[in-house]
Structure formats: C-alpha cells, structure tokens
Amino acid sequence: MKKLRHILQSKHLIKIITIIIFIITLLYTNYYPFKSKYTKDDKEFIGIVTKYEVKEDKITIEIKAKEKLLITYKYQDKEFNNLSYGDKIKVKGTLITPSKNTNQNTFNYQKYLYYKKIYYLVEATSINKIANNHNYLYTIKNTLYQKINKLKSSNYIKTLLFCDNTLSKEIKESYRINGISHLFSVSGMHINFFVSIIYLYLNKITYNKRIKYLITNIFIITYLILFPSSSLLRSAVMSILYSINYLLKLKIKKIDILLLTLGVSLLINPFIIYDLGYIYSYTITFFLVLSSSTLKKKNKINKIIYISLLSFLVSIPITIYNSFEINIISILLNIILVPIISIIILPLTILTYIFPILDSILYLFANTLETISLFISKINITKIIFPKPSLLIIVLYYIIFLLSYQNKKYFYLNIILLIIIYISPYLNSNFEVVMFEVGEADCHLIKYPYNKNTILIDTGKNEYKIKNEVIPYLKSIGIKKIDYLIITHGDEDHIGGSITLINNFQVKNVILNKGTFTDIEKELIKNLNKKKIPYQININKINLSNHTIYLLNNTKYNNENDNSIITYFTYQKYKFLYMGDASITTEDNLLENYNLNNISILKVGHHGSNTSSSKDFISQINPSISLISVGENNIYHHPNKEVINNLSKSRIYRTDINNMVKLTINSKGILKVTTIT
Prior knowledge:
Elements: H1 2-8, H2 13-31, E1 44-54, E2 58-64, E3 68-74, E4 88-96, H3 109-114, E5 118-131, H4 136-146, H5 154-162, H6 169-177, H7 188-202, H8 209-226, H9 230-247, H10 254-268, H11 276-290, H12 292-296, H13 300-322, E6 325-327, H14 329-354, H15 359-377, E7 383-385, H16 391-403, H17 411-423, E8 431-435, E9 444-447, E10 454-457, H18 463-476, E11 484-486, H19 492-495, H20 498-504, E12 510-512, H21 519-531, E13 535-537, E14 541-543, E15 548-552, E16 566-571, E17 574-578, H22 584-593, E18 601-603, H23 615-621, E19 625-628, H24 641-646, E20 651-654, H25 655-658, E21 661-665, E22 671-675
Parallel strand pairs: 3-5, 10-11, 11-12, 12-13, 17-18, 18-19, 19-20
Antiparallel strand pairs: 1-2, 1-4, 2-3, 4-5, 6-7, 8-9, 8-21, 9-10, 14-15, 15-16, 16-17, 21-22
Helix pairs in contact: 2-10, 5-14, 6-15, 8-9, 9-10, 9-11, 10-11, 11-13, 13-14, 13-16, 14-15, 16-17, 18-20
C-alpha cells in the first residue's frame, strides 16, 4: 500500500496517464471504423426496451438488440400502457440512416446518435411484446416510474431524480437560453444531497466509515446503472474516487482525483468526450476544484456569487462554440436559483416522490419557475451574440484562465480575447451570399463586408428550419440583425418562416411584393405592426451605404408567382439575379425592359420548374453559376430536366444535392464556392 501511495502521489504521473488516455480516446473515436451490425435489408429486430416515450399518436423506443436502435412507431388505435423497461419486443420496419446537418454550424443529428452508438433509426410498421421484463434492475426502475406517472409534477421528478429530462422543448430551450440547464441535470449537487441523507440514517446504525462509504458507493453505482447520464457519470466516478482516496489514505490531491475521474470516465465510455453535458460539468468542476482554497475563505452568500460568476466565465467558450451567444442574466439567475433548487425544489421533489400528496405544491413551484424562465428568455437586451470561435481560440482561453491562477493580470488577456472574437465579423472583408437548405422552399442571405449590411431573401416555409438552422447560422458568423428582409411573394414556401424570424431575431426593415396579399402576408403585417417593424410595398430599389439593390418587375399580374420581387445587384465584377418564383411571362417582360446579360450568379426561378427558366431567357442572361433551392425527392420532381438542359453551360448547385451553398468573394475579387455535401 505504501508503494501504491508513493506512486499515486507522484507529481506528474496521473497527469501523464490522463493525457495519454485522452489522446488515445480522440484517435479511437475519430479513426476507428465503427459500423452497424445491421444492413439496410434487415426488416425485423428483436431487443430489450431500455428507454421509451409515449405521445398521443407516436411512441419512441430505444432497444438493445445486436446494437442500440431507436424505434419510431406511429399508431392510431393501439396503446402502449403495458410497455415496461426490460421488456423484450419484436419490431418490424425499415432502417433509416439518421440525417446529417444540411446547413453549416447547425445540429448534426447523425453525429449526435453516432456518439451514443446508434447508427440506425427504425421506422416501425409493427411492434409486439414477446416477453415481459425479468431483470431485477429494470424491475426497480419500473417500480420507481409507476409511482409517479400520474403526478402533475412527474416531469420534474423524472428530470431531477431519474436523469430523464422529459420537459417540453420550449421549457428546455428557455433554460438553455437563460444558462440554467445544468440545474436540471443530476450531478454533484444531487449526489451530495443523496449521500447526506444516506449518511444521516447510517449514523444511527454505525460509526464505521468504511461501511458508510461502501454502502454509499453501492448506492451511487446502482443509481448510475439505473439512470445513466453524462453528468451523473462524472459526479459518481469522482465521488467513488474520493472515498477510495480517503479510505486507503492515498493522499491524492483533489485536482489529480478530478483528472483520474476524466480518465476513468473515458475508459467507461470513450464517446463521452463529445457529450456537451459532460464537457460543461467537468470543465466547471475542474476550475471550482482549482479555486477550492479561495472558496474556503468566503461566506455562504459570497461563495454562491463566486461559484456562479466562475461557472459563467469558465463556460463562455463552450457556450459560444455551440450556441453562438451568451446571456449575462444567467449569472444573476444562478445566484438566485442555485439555493432555491438545492434547498427547496430538490428536497421537495424527493418528498413528493415519497408523499405524492405534495404533488400540487411541487407543480406550483415548477410552473412558477417555467413562467419566469419563459419570460426572461425573451429578453434580448442581456444576450450577446458571438461568432463561432475556432478550437484553437478555446484552448488558448483555458490556458490563459489557468495562468490567471498564478497571476490575476493574465485574466485581462481573456477579456481581450473575447473582444477580438466579438469584433472579428467586423474585420471580415469578404462578401458572402448563402443559399440555405430549407427543403422545397427559398431562403437566401446576402452579407456585405465588415457586416455593414445583411439582406435575407425569403424565409422558407417552416418554423423549424428558421429557428434551428437559419438563425443559428446567422449568429455563428456574427450577424446580429437583418437590415432588410425581402419577401419575394406570399406563397408559404417563401414567407412561411417570416413570423418565426421576426419573433426570434432582430429585423430592421421588410420589403413586400405588389399584388393582393395572401393570408400569410396579412398575418405577417399584423406582427410587423405589433413589433413596430417598418415595411414597404413594391419599391424599386434599396439604397445601402455604398451599394444599391434593385428590385425589378413592377408589372402587376394576376398570378402570385409572377408578382415575385426580382432582385438584381452587382458586387465588384459580379452580377446577381434572384428570380423568386417568376414564370416565363415575367422573364419575357424582364428581357424587354432591362439589359440583363452575363449574369454571374442566378437564383433559378421557381425551384427549377418548367414554368420558369426558358431557353431564350437563359441564353440571354447567360449565367455562370446557377443556384436551385429544391427539396430532396420532392413531389413536383423539381428541377425539371429541360431546365437543367437550359442551364447546362453554367455550374449548377442544388440544395437537394449540395445542401447549403456559400459563395464568398474576397477583397481581390476571387470567388469561392463551398458546400457541405
């Protein structure tokens, strides 16, 4: 034991071992070819239910078969009230490859599932139970769940006690925006609370610390097996290592125990290195441990303030890398909510589980918290948008943070670094246009150098794409506002996401087309008036500081597509033409009234439909690059083959093949096209 103690107390050994495990993990997870044991031809799957969620007309089940599979089954008549964890089921259905992100800097569902070792989704046609659960651990889990399923506050009991965050997407998003999501993840606070309760009872039975540590460690391991989660893994491993260190009197430093925690966690699950919850949890804990001597000198109130501020500063690089904005108010919210959650809500959650009569009280607290969170999440003045930093910048930030423990003056370098990240878009001399992948719809960005002007042409047709892909991308490149939103016409696939956009992002001006307004346009105008956003109808041009955007096609038609705003502008030697959904009739009118030739970049009309892009029109404008925004396997069979033939002399980029397309023109006039195919 003395020899082991001496080895573990070595100054650099644990650090070296952890670094080696970390490097091997990176190589293993990135270069080892993980492949599914299934093939696309497989149609029947038998496995054990490990997770499930029942909704009104759909059930989602995760099963452990040859490998983990995620099952989705839509049903009408059959209910799944008799399904339990550990049940053996037979599933018939089709294997679906999870989708990748089709727009840059957005959530990659395929990669997310890959890190969870799920390679396929199953679109089920039938699900049948073939055996009931016989596993005693699953029996415990089923018993725990059955007691709370009918409680109004069951979602919070599952979240705070069972690592099963079943809160609504809207609530989870508000907690994320407000920087308080970590309070609803089972972590060190929960482990300490549970261990304290166990100790309280064990003190009445025995004074033997070995027995106490043994029982608490058995509880922690069982808890982790029953309710696995990334943040729980970190706190569980760390707690067990602390107890071993104490019992064996190894005298390992706290920081080395934390490093060992990382090493052990990676050995248990190498992919946890990519889990955002674990990254947050471990990074914040790491710096709190480094600050332990400072924390000891502070009283309870100052300690809460210090921890909240330190946690906020430490998490900034992770937050802006993933969410592209920080919320200053999260410091205050954490100062207020940490004691409320730990002293009131968490104990009340446990008491409600034991005494369900308290359900209404817990529900009242939870509902109040949700209402406050939703309200605060809509306050934009406290949010600061940052462009996505490089991993090198993030590493540099943490190196400086570590150095600041030796000399506090180094901390000011991090403030300078954050300022540099913040202003970097205003130093970018590139002109950029982006064709977003929004399905069978249109959404295009025009960004001038130094973020001087940003124009968005159309908004696609649904809320999801705008809120979860377009807006995050805008933030990721440091765009804080849209100067002009041009709605080419009132069809849903061009205007459908507009209300979501103005409700979730700053829009300064809106341009609408001529003709009779559609219902969606009328609804948009109501929202514009409510938010006091100015809008103009059927104007000829937009005057920017050093450039002019021309809005062609002032002839009024009886067809909404033909009433599309045609957008024309130049930048350096390049000519851009965006055709909306204009048909051949409008094209002929343009040729009669405007001198359009040698167009550099053409946004092809009407998604490549044969109602647009006539041979005469394309021959006259002679585009070098043609952009077609079109949905994959769309029911209209866009783009039309004849149109593709008409465009054959140009380089064609399609969102159904190339996904998001970005064209960049640098200060020297060199054009570069990038896609995320």
